[in-house]
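Hey, can you fold this one?
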Amino acid sequence: MSGDLFKGLEISAEETEVRIRGEVTQVNVNELAKQAAAGIYSDRGVAQVQKGDSDAAIAEFDKAIMLDPESASAFVNRGKARANKGSFDAAIADYDKAISLDPDDALAYNNRCFVRVKKGDFDAAIVDCDKSIALDPGFVYSYNNRGLAFASQGKLDKAMADYDKSIALDAENIFAYQNRGDARIRTENWDGALAAYEKVLTINATSAEAYNGRGVAHYHKGDLDQSIADYDKAIAINPNLAEAYGNRALSLLMLRRDAQAERDLNKCFELNQSLRRVFDPLVKEIKKTRRTKSP
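Sure. Predicted structure:
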């Protein structure tokens, strides 16, 4: 779950619309300081990201940086927009620049940690989050992101300790609850995973990832109908969540609903071909088990 953030900006939905529609031409750069004008472009960039348009956001942050190339926050925010697009190397370059401008910026280290987790550079990610935590011990997302890096290395005890710390600092941190549930799945703590996903859904009833995770826990507890119901909800919320189709296919196969399972597998691989290496062995194992149990 995401843990990279924007720098020092809180904008309401109504204000988002106002800032996107606003004309920067209303700002007379000859009368106002360039830094003030750059701030307006940065605000517009954040509004664009909140609207889901990373390209437009990057264009706004480019303008802000052109006016104020010493603004660490503009580089942090452009890095976030680039990360949203999956342009991880470009995002890291922006975070590197932000840190060079402000070596005490805990957020820049946190965001770079998150992107490095995405790139699979877990050791460097941990170093970044260590630094972020040293600068700001109360920054909840750094614990969550370091936990992701530890979990990716298979160090689940360390990951769980970081998720617990993140939750202790912010009891409404759905990212940490989701990641705690995912870690408990890996340790086959099905009831513990269910509790974590339930907490996410209590806070955010539209979390497709939480429904998907809860479905996995129900599957392993043998409640196939409930698992399918959860995958149905996950897909209804996010029709592009490939894992939910693959997971639902496994439940359907266990119930010998093979035609439906085949459709789900095809959809899963259409959305994410790399998931074949995850689901193909599981499908083969289920079919083998079914043959063994057949009269």
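The chain is about 75% helix and 0% strand. Let me know if you want another pass with a different chain boundary.
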